[in-house]
Amino acid sequence: MLSVARAVSTARSRILPVLLCLLLSPVNVVSAATEMDILPTYRQGTFVWNKAGLNNSPNILSELKWENLRARGIKSILRHDMDRRSYLEASGEYAWIYAGTNQDSDYDGDNRTKEFSRSNNSGNGGHVFDASLAVGWKMRDTTSQRTSLLAGYGYSRQLLRMTDGFQTINKYGSIGPFAGLNSSYRTVWQGPWMGLQHEERLNRRLNLIARLEYHWLSYEAEARWNLRADLEQPITNNHWAGGSGIVASLGLNYAAGSRWRLGANVDYTRYSTGYGTDQVNGATGEKTRIRLNEARWDSWAYRLKATYLF
User: Fold this and answer.
1) What pLDDT, on the 0 to 100 scale, is given for residue 139?
2) How confident is the model at residue 26, as a pLDDT?
3) Phi/psi class of residue 176: alpha, beta or left (left: φ > 0; alpha: ψ in -120 to 50)?
4) pTM score > 0.90 for this model?
C-alpha cells in the first residue's frame, strides 16, 4: 500500500506541472480574416415614457413604466478584415421577454400629483431586437494591445405588452382586476453611432475587452390601447422624438485553441429622448398632438461568448 501511495504521489507531482504548462502556454491563434461570435444572453431592462396634457397642463398627464423586464436571447457578431487596418462588423440580437411588470398612471396635477388612475399589469410576452453595421479602424495593433475606432448605424426595437389588468387607483370607478387588457407599445430607435474598442492582453491566453459607443437617435413608437373605444384602432397613438444613447461593454476572452476563444461580456445600454410629439388618434378620425416629455430605455445584458476564427 505504501508503494502504491508513493507511486500516486510521484505521478501527481509530475503531471501537475505539465497541466500548468499547457494551461499557461501561449496559443498560436490563427490570424483570420473573418471571425464570428455567438453570445447566449440574459437581459434585464426598464422602459419609461410620459407625456403632458393639452397646453402642457398638467406637465405630466400620463406615465407608463415597464420594470423588471427579463429576457433570454442570443446575439451574433461577424467581423471581416478588409485589410491590415480596417474591418467590417455586423451584429444582430433577438431576446424574448418572459417576465416583467407594467404600471399606467394618470394625473390631474403637475409633477405627478393628484393621481386619479393607476393600473398595475403584467409586462411579459414581448421581445427586443437589435442590429448594427459598422466599419472599424485599428488605430493601434500590437501583440499586447489593440485600439479601434468604429463608426456605424444601429437599429433597436422593443415590443412591450400589457396584459392581466388590475386597477389600483380609480377616482371615477371600481378597483380590482379587469378583463380584456391586451395592449402593446412598439418602439424603434435608430441612427448613426461612433465608438472606441480597446483590447488588452492580460497573459498568454486571457484578453480584456472594453468598448463604448455613442448613438445619435431618432425615435418612433406606436401605442395600441385595445380597451380605448374613444380612440382609433389598432394604432391609438404615435410618438416621434430625437434622442441619444450610450452602449458600454466589458468582457474577457480566453484562447481555448488555435481557432476558438471562450469568454463572457457585460453590456449596459441607455437610450433616451428629449421633448417630442404624442399624436392621439381619435375614433372619428381627428388627430390631436401634445407634448411627449421623454422616453427612456435602460438595459443590462449578461452574455457568454464563443468565438470561432475562420
Assistant:
1) 93
2) 43
3) left
4) no
- Determine whether 28 is exposed, middle or buried from the number of CB atoms within 10 Å of its CB (0-12, 13-18, 19+): exposed
Q: Read off the C-alpha cell for 93.
A: 440580437
Q: Do 147 and 195 touch, CB atoms closer than 8 A?
A: no
At position 111, the amino acid (one-letter code) is: N
Residue with cell 412598439: 186
CA–CA distance, 282 with 184 (Å, rounded to integer): 18
pLDDT value, residue 144: 87
Give the chain's residues under pLDDT 70. 1-32
Cα–Cα distance for residue pair 60/293, rounded to 1 Å: 8
H helix runs in the chain, sequence order = 2-24
C-alpha of 218 from chain center: 17
Buried b (16+ CB within 10 A) or exposed e, 43-81: bbbbbbbbbbbeeeebbbbbbbbbeebbbebebebebeb
CA distances to 95, 123, 134, 234 from 74, rounded to whole Å, are 6, 21, 19, 31
Alpha carbon distance 60, 276 (integer Å): 13
Query: What separation in angstroms does the CA of 39 have from each of 71, 72, 266?
Result: 14, 11, 11
According to the model, what pLDDT value does residue 13 have? 52
Cell of 284: 372619428
Element (H, E) at 16: helix 2-24
d(CA 289, CA 238): 9
Rounded-to-integer distance, Cα 60 and Cα 53, Å: 7
- What are the DSSP calls for 17-65, one per residue? HHHHHHHHS-------SEEEEEEEEEEEEEEEEEE--GGG-SS--EEEE
Residues with Cβ within 8 Å of residue 298, at least 6 apart in sequence: 45, 46, 47, 269, 270
- H helices then E strands: how many in the chain? 1, 13
